[in-house]
Design a protein that fits this description.
With 156 residues, the protein is an all-alpha fold. The protein has two domains: 42 residues; 113 residues. It is 92% helix and 0% strand. The protein is built from four helices and no strands. Helix 3 runs antiparallel to helix 4. It starts with a helix and ends with a helix. About 7% of the residues have low confidence.
Length: 156
């Protein structure tokens, strides 16, 4: 077989022999150095696996942190809502006390019998303003009660 190769090469001109030699050298160099160059350029699977594992751990840590921060936010929102409810219930109690006082005074004023027309007119004016205040207080109390109920429903 080598005998035939030498006969074939003997028929080549000097330029063709040099060209064949250059092609052969390039092929040998590529085959020899190719894997080394590819290893240098590409990353090893082990390196990629380590990098992916590191990112997975970091993702888990960040996810846990987000969960804990979400818990803190919800707790603070609940505490804030409870404080608002407490304050509105205090205001409601004060308005209730004020309403009882106004009713008490209104009864006392209606019991007073006056002989003069002027005194009677003053009592009517006071009665009307008391009625207006009572209506205003009832409206405020109703609004507070509705808001407290909404907060309790949304908080639970």
């Amino acid at each position: 077989m080598f005998k035939y190769i030498s006969e074939i090469i003997g028929k080549f001109s000097m330029t063709q022999r040099i060209t064949a030699l250059v092609v052969l050298l390039i092929a040998i160099t590529t085959i020899t150095l190719g894997p080394s160059i590819l290893d240098a350029v590409s990353q090893d699977n082990e390196e990629l696996n380590l990098k992916v594992e590191r990112q997975r751990r970091q993702l888990i840590l960040l996810s846990n942190e987000v969960d804990s921060l979400t818990f803190v936010i919800r707790k603070n929102q609940r505490d804030c809502t409870n404080q608002i409810i407490e304050r509105e219930e205090e205001i409601y109690a004060q308005l209730d006390r004020l309403e009882r006082e106004l009713r008490s005074r209104n009864r006392n004023l209606s019991m007073i019998q006056s002989d003069t027309i002027v005194a009677s007119m003053k009592v009517r004016v006071v009665d009307n303003s008391m009625d207006d205040m009572m209506n205003g207080i009832k409206k405020i109390k109703k609004d507070i009660k509705v808001h407290v109920e909404e907060c309790k429903e949304n908080g639970q």
